[in-house]
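ugh ok fine here u go
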Amino acid sequence: MGLPVLDLAPLSAGPAGEAQVAAALGAACRETGFFCLTNHGVPQRLLDAVFAGSARFFALPVETKRAVAIERSRHNRGYVPMEGESLDPSRPPDAKEAFNMGRELAPDDPDLLAGKPFHGPNQWPDLPGFRTTLTDYFDAVQGLCVRLHRAIAIDLGLPPGHFDRLIDRPLATLRLLHYPPHPGTFDGGQYGAAPHTDYGNVTVLAQDDVGGLAVQRRDGGWIDAPPMPGAFVCNIGDCLMRWTNDVYVSTPHRVVNRTGRERYSIAYFCDPNGDAPVECLPTCTGPDRPARYPPTTGADYLRERLDATYAFRRT
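structure:
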């Protein structure tokens, strides 16, 4: 399939296993920016429940879904209607709809009460079990992302726990995605998801069996990333690229659903904490490699990227 396949089982085998995974992960982040994960520890029954909940949600009437529209939230949470997102503003809007949730916060959470960006309440439709299923999945995949960040730190010559305090209150987003069949022959105009790179540190994607994801090689060509039973497709995003001073490079990817079937996928975008300083890591710079990006924070960087994607955020 053209993408590296990483077995995460050795992560449970102590420092030697962590070092083994870190080396393979680092090579994938440098060479392709995309890889598949097996033995990742997220239960299949939980993944199946999220896919079932996604199908139930997107089958609701449009007016019901719009009751939790993303325009009602300044925190990137809620329903994104069909053609409501432009990952490439130079192209027609994307042929997909989505539902976003973030970290579930208690009503008395100090960041929520302070009105900090991306610390608002989630918007939940009236679907029995939907909220519990999604929050359980969110927590499970965030746990996986913590383990991946430990391997990333090792590969970059940092202490294994370097990122722990920077992703313990993440601005992560869980997205349910629904793509209708593309009408007719794809003419290069409207994509399901136009070519783009992801915004955050790490994306963990679960696909159904329909396919449609394609990844750009370093030489500019494209390769398909078909579903692999029991595995996630994972990629690094632009925020981690900034942190590593382009040691890791994010990779453009796109979606076109040519199958004549509905396509569903579940993406978990692991962004850092809102106040995490995103600046060149000490092991990723030197006399011949000066810092290439100005310092920012997790919240400022996410806000910048979302404002460019959604027109309603610019009004």
